[in-house]
């Protein structure tokens, strides 16, 4: 059967409460669908989160997962009515998404509060190895910071982006391991994040979207970088405190579940590389070959 698309609209109140991760996990656990696009849209009550899923019989599966407040185990029963919604099977899902695209939330280049800062979080490809609750579970733990989520994007990092993003790491690895081994380690990091080793690609191929999936998030608020880094934990999961992202979800120093900016300055650089704010819902709908 051909893959189809549908979506969940997470109400502004649920977004403010930090429930996006829990809802993402709950949807995937109940449907087995793949997250294909994510972002924020403007609603009358504030900014809502839009999560677009792909897979077999997606409209029926998501509608059943949301259910109603009278059906135990549904998202509506667990969260409350109107906290999350899905379109009815048979509705014009592509048309609805294009309507949402007109209200897609824009993000200013700088935080609105001069005392606030931004932190970029990347939920890494190991969480997307198969459809499961891990991406949402990681996001749910980051929500403990109590920071507003101002941007969200499903991203396939190109090798070129990976080379730029992890460029500062190359010098440190070269100094530690020598030129050859250092670069080999560095290429392994880029391959993990993008799906390809830069040395195996032509210059033009390095520009193509990678095969590995990440979920990019931007949190904003006072001391955002420090708060997010505390929840993330040290690079080595074995040395991370219990309850941190890397201790609970990481495997080793490279496959460690998530990345978070280590300074406000680096956050600005990294957000520019991943282009989190360049996340056109209209472009996604037009390129997706929609089948309702």
Brief sketch in words of this structure:
This protein has 292 residues and is an alpha+beta fold. The chain has 13 helices and eight strands.
Give short descriptive properties of this protein.
single chain; 292 residues; alpha+beta; Alpha-Beta Plaits; four-stranded antiparallel beta sheet; 13 helices; 8 strands; 40% helix
Write the layout of secondary structure elements.
Elements: E1 4-10, H1 12-16, H2 20-31, E2 34-43, E3 46-55, H3 58-66, H4 75-79, E4 84-85, H5 93-102, E5 117-123, H6 134-142, E6 149-155, H7 159-165, H8 167-177, H9 179-194, E7 214-221, H10 224-232, H11 245-249, E8 258-260, H12 264-274, H13 281-287
Antiparallel strand pairs: 1-3, 1-4, 2-3, 5-7, 5-8, 6-7
What do these coordinates show?
The protein has 292 residues and is α+β, with helices and mostly antiparallel strands. It contains 13 helices and eight strands. Among the domains are: 1-106 and 277-292, Alpha-Beta Plaits; 159-207, no CATH class.
